[in-house]
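Sequence decides. Our protein:
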Amino acid sequence: MATPTIDAPRSGKVDVKYTRRKGGKGNFEMAAWLFMRLSGVVLVVLIFGHLFVNLMVGDGIHAIDFGFVAGKWASPFWQIWDLLMLWLAMLHGTNGVRTIINDYAERNATRMTLKTVLYVATVVIIVLGTLVIFTFDPCPAGAVTDLPSFCTAK
């Protein structure tokens, strides 16, 4: 009886089942893998910057209220910072859940349904979050009660 042999790793012989097709799913998965690593690094910077400014600078957690958020979002810098954090966190998390769905959903219909729900939820949260960040008005016109102290009567 012949003993099966395994070719040396760098022998140049390639098993056809494990080669990547050009333009196939492998390119998307590689981009998704790379996105997870890069977005993770950027998210660490964004989140720790967010936590430092909100918790360590000034009066710390006791200063966080409606006025604090209104003051932060009056600056385009903090609007962009929070927008990047929202978008990257949502896309990073969505990509991770997509991978889990691909790994564990056995039927194609189940996989498609779960991913559709995931993508719809992601788009809704990103759109609503973006609208909140850019349309936030701490001093709405016509409001006469319960305005923050920095709002002038209109």
